[in-house]
Amino acid sequence: MLVSKNWISQFNTIPKKITPQQLGVDLTMHVVEVEDVIDEARFLDNVVVGKVVEVKKHDNADTLHVCTVDVRDEKLQVVCGGSNVREGMFVAMGKLGASVRWHGEGEPVVLTKAKIRGVESFGMICASDEIGLGDMFPKQSEKEILDLTDIIASKSSDVVGKSLAEALGLDDVIFDIDNKSMTHRPDLWGQYGMAREIAAMYGVALKPYEPKKIGKPAGTGRDLSIQVKDAKACPRYMAVAIDNIEVAESPAWLKKRLMSVGVQPRNNVVDVTNFVMFELGQPLHAFDIKQLANKKGDVEIVVRKAKDEEAYTSLDDKEYKLTKEDLVIATKDKVVALAGVKGSNNSGVTNETTSILLESANFHAVTIRRTVSRHGLRTDASARYEKSLDPHLCELALRRVVELLKEVSPKSVVSSTIVDQSDFSLDQGPIALDTEFVQRKMGVDLPATEMVRILTSLGFGVKEKKNTLSVTIPSWRATKDISIREDLVEEIARVYGYDNIVPTLPMFPIVPPKKNALRELETRLRALLAYEGRYTEVSNYSFISPELLEKVGEQTKDYLELENPIAKDRPYLRRHLRENMLEMVERNLHRFDTVNIFEIGKVFKKELDGEKDGLKHVLPRQDTLLAMAHAAKGDENPFLHVSTAFTTIMTRLGLVVEYTKKSLDDVLVHPGRFAEVSVAGKKIGHIAEVHPLTAEKLGLDARTAILEVNLSEIVSLLTEKTQYLPLSQYPSIERDVAFVLDTEKQHEDIAAALIKADPLTVDVELFDVFTGKNIPEGKKSMAYRITYRSDEKTLEGKDVDVVHEKIVAMLKKKFGAEIRA
Amino acid sequence: MKEQLSSLKKEFEAQLKHVSSLLQLEALEQTIFGRKAGAFTTLAKQMKDVATEQKKAIGEMMNTVRLKIVKELEEKREALQREEMKKIAETESIDVTEPHLPKEAHGHMHPMSQVEIELSELFRSMGFMVLDGPELESDYFNFEALNIPPSHPARDSHDTFFIKDHPEWVMRTHTSPVQVRAMRQYGAPLRAVVPGRVFRNESTDASHEHTFTQLEGLVVDTDISIADIIGVMKGLLTGILKREVEVRLRPGYFPFVEPGFELDMKCLVCDGKGCNVCKHTGWVEMMPCGLVHPEVLKAGGLDPDVYSGFAFGLGSMRLVMQKYGIEDIRHFQSGDLRFLKQF
């Protein structure tokens, strides 16, 4: 919203020493966020009113003209690309030295003498946005220059050469307020509300807002009947008829005020309704009575909910189908306005209008907000109603607009009694406010007198008894904004100034914070996986596409689904990390030969119970999983890369991992390369190479293995290493054994058998596995290094020979191993 | 014997002069002390034939000669070794800039994780618990318990993802629901932070993501004041940014706090003078915060007449973007290793 310094100065006196910049900062610090402080004339130095006296085509450019512009003291030759330039036109002439912004963007550029396609140009004929007047005079087309001919009131020649700022009376400073910072403040949506805040801020007087009371109609007048069918949706509806209206152009002061806050003037009637809305924050609507009245000139209005599918055509001729949730203003036979949003095209004010019905109403914020979002139709009026307006404003606004109408259309007369249908109540307190409570919340020993001063200046009624203030809420703050004592603390503290509060630190007992075991596990795993396992951490969306699920054989019916996915292609909530991970592997394999990635994240399972929902039920289970994936061009067995890395990392956590080849009905899984992963006998997940057919569907260019385990299951298994084996006093002896055996024989079994074979075998390490050349089909060669040691004596060769022979015999017997040389 | 010894010594000394390598020295040593045919060894073997009365004198002489030769051999060896070492400076010279081959891949932690861990550590050091909460949250915890009833306009600005067939659930739009969960679980006094993933249904571009991270903070005790917020926040930002910062509070509206604030920090780029980063205001908006609303305390099972608290929300993803100058928020979830390998 734009706030005009000149406009608010009608209601208070801003102290002279406060510069506009300072006022902007003060508003930000005490009231609302000011995004920009705009001096209307900031780009108008050396910009004057010029009159185009000659226009010739540029010899070397089709779209350019060479113009002669009269600026009183001299006639300037200017090259101009404006599509609408013509002889006799009054223009904004940027003389040499003027600062303009090309196309209204970026930093200003100072004009210097230039040669454009060989022709000298002494300045520039400006477009509105190039001199900061884009909001005031919006361009109709890209190459349009600002045409002042109709805007400059005096078309006589003495305006020529005048500074543009002076000619247009641009002496205002505009504050651009971030609307998002005042959604909770219905009272700030007009200039007067801002004036009130500024008065409180600087401790200056605020002029009361007291428009003249509306007089009685001359004679019997028109008969107005207003029927409000839904008092909740329309707590107040006021209306009055005005006759003898002469629709005309608004006077200059009115147009200037509206333009200063970015509103385009239309005609005197529409302009005064807009003026009051922007001044007080209360929307008004003017109907052409001819379109509403019966033959006798009487009007019957019904405020009711629309019927389903009821048609409504807006003032700007757009058609809508309403629902029974929308509120409309209607006569017997037609909808004449979508309540609180916009009028219909069947009853608006036109140049032929002579009598109007003025509506000043209050509508229920939620009803209006829903209508706005349902139909995507947002207006200045609806933006205000959505904030919960004070119903008392209806009367003030109506009085003000009638007062102004009399000024802009002097023959106008009130031609009906004022109708006021109202059914509302506001909780205006009083709130009992303990002054010590305020001091405690602020952390400041603020005297009660200062609290009273601040609250009073904002319009609160305050009665002081002992250490308690009894505070009455003004109606404009009572609709939803202020209802509890904490709200009053905010009022006092912000006007006092947060900057004036001396920072303190709360006192806390020195105790170590409770641990979060899952978080700590995640943190350790991240470091271990990245820096020891050499895997890179990725982060995927929690959402997944049906196409991807289908490729890996998942059923979408098992998945929770978003009601309103952002991208229609990812509507499901992931149950696994693996699918999105595999997509990432696929993408990265186009750029890297090796991809080692992991992710830690939550998944969603609707069939399992999770945390409480705060009422009576539970949320779906959301366990934290870890997934690891490895693919490398040329790596024919990526499974082991992943399993080994995972085992190593788990060892760091003091956990022993077991991989068991349990069959798994999963099209994602390679039929010969899969395992269930368990820790301490507890199943925690799976590991597998991706099935070649699935890999093809996913477009994976290399064999890929993926592991997925449930960290929520591991947390309870974590133990701290508490064991240490004393170093042996006796040396050990190493012997290698190599043998050929059937491929299905498993390392884990062999290693276990070796270590159990004799008390002297203290360590067993696989150091080579080989298939292919010289090894028969279905067989593999394995080589182990066995460490022998006794805790009682130094072993000799012959001691070891005996045991080693026993082991060889065991390998032959138990595994059918054929010992190699 | 004597003559033989002295000629052996002379002969040795003559030959030693011609020795120019360790190998030659080795050979010379062998000719003298070789176990089988060394000249000195041979002489020593003849000692048994020496007459008894001469044994002592000859023996002493032999020892003197032996020590002398050994010493000279040692000296020569050291000299030769010094020579040798001079050579390897060239012969064994290496390119110190080469990497060890074959090159081993490195792993990288996601930048968001790195910063979250750093922040969590900082908060833990100040006595804060680090908490989690569900990402799919109940409407109750996400909105109602935070003083945002069904018709509240704040709901519109939250661009919520809803769950099909479950109107009572949403993807959490902020980490604030954990405020109430934490109060219910741990009571007061309480200090906790909640780093985590949140969701907003808005279209993505370089500066908007539908999935991003926040870090919620909550302090509950008796007598928490606005002055405390300013003090604690200043300390926090100093810890996060590792330098002294100046902060200011200004009014801000969030339904779950009262009063509510926007906390600004004096621009570190221009030191408050005004630049592009701070949009020429000298201040950068850092985080919303405020005193916990009494309704929220009540929802958390705490008596607002006894307890008070403050809460803040840090846009941790924005912080990471600022820290590294990341221009596009979508990189975080792209999985692009070209991006991730930089951290």
From TrEMBL, chain A:
Its EC number is 6.1.1.20. Tetramer of two alpha and two beta subunits. Residues 426-503 form the B5 domain. Gene3D superfamilies: 3.30.56.10, Bira Bifunctional Protein, Domain 2, Ferrodoxin-fold anticodon-binding domain, Nucleic acid-binding proteins, Phenylalanyl-trna Synthetase, Chain B, domain 3. InterPro entries: aa-tRNA-synth_II/BPL/LPL (IPR045864), B3/B4_tRNA-bd (IPR005146), DNA-bd_dom_put_sf (IPR009061), Fdx_antiC-bd (IPR005121), Fdx_antiC-bd_sf (IPR036690), NA-bd_OB-fold (IPR012340), Phe-tRNA-ligase_IIc_bsu (IPR045060), Phe-tRNA-ligase_IIc_bsu_bact (IPR004532). It is found in: Cytoplasm. Mg(2+) binds at D481, D487, E490, E491. Keywords: Aminoacyl-tRNA synthetase, ATP-binding, Cytoplasm, Ligase, Magnesium, Metal-binding, Nucleotide-binding, Protein biosynthesis, RNA-binding, tRNA-binding. The gene is pheT. This is Phenylalanine--tRNA ligase beta subunit. The lineage of its organism: Bacteria, Candidatus Magasanikiibacteriota. Signal peptide: none annotated. Pfam families: B3_4 (PF03483), B5 (PF03484), FDX-ACB (PF03147), tRNA_bind (PF01588), tRNA_synthFbeta (PF17759). GO terms for biological process: phenylalanyl-tRNA aminoacylation. Residues 41-160 form the TRNA-binding domain. It comes from the Bacteria. GO terms for cellular component: phenylalanine-tRNA ligase complex. Its main location: cytoplasm. Binds 2 magnesium ions per tetramer. Its cofactor is Mg(2+). It catalyses: tRNA(Phe) + L-phenylalanine + ATP = L-phenylalanyl-tRNA(Phe) + AMP + diphosphate + H(+). Belongs to the phenylalanyl-tRNA synthetase beta subunit family. Type 1 subfamily. GO terms for molecular function: ATP binding; magnesium ion binding; phenylalanine-tRNA ligase activity; tRNA binding. Residues 728-820 form the FDX-ACB domain.
From TrEMBL, chain B:
Residues 113-321 form the Aminoacyl-transfer RNA synthetases class-II family profile domain. Keywords: Aminoacyl-tRNA synthetase, ATP-binding, Cytoplasm, Ligase, Magnesium, Metal-binding, Nucleotide-binding, Protein biosynthesis. One of its GO terms (biological process) is phenylalanyl-tRNA aminoacylation. Its cofactor is Mg(2+). One of its GO terms (molecular function) is phenylalanine-tRNA ligase activity. Mg(2+) binds at E258. SUPFAM superfamilies: Class II aaRS and biotin synthetases, tRNA-binding arm. One of its GO terms (cellular component) is cytoplasm. It is found in: Cytoplasm. InterPro entries: aa-tRNA-synth_II, aa-tRNA-synth_II/BPL/LPL, Phe-tRNA-synth_IIc_asu, Phe-tRNA_ligase_II_N, Phe_tRNA_ligase_alpha1_bac, Phenylalanyl-tRNA_Synthase, tRNA-bd_arm. PANTHER family: PHENYLALANINE--TRNA LIGASE, MITOCHONDRIAL (PTHR11538:SF41), PHENYLALANYL-TRNA SYNTHETASE (PTHR11538). Belongs to the class-II aminoacyl-tRNA synthetase family. Phe-tRNA synthetase alpha subunit type 1 subfamily. Tetramer of two alpha and two beta subunits. This is Phenylalanine--tRNA ligase alpha subunit. It comes from Candidatus Magasanikbacteria bacterium CG_4_9_14_0_2_um_filter_42_11. The lineage of its organism: Bacteria, Candidatus Magasanikiibacteriota. The gene is pheS.
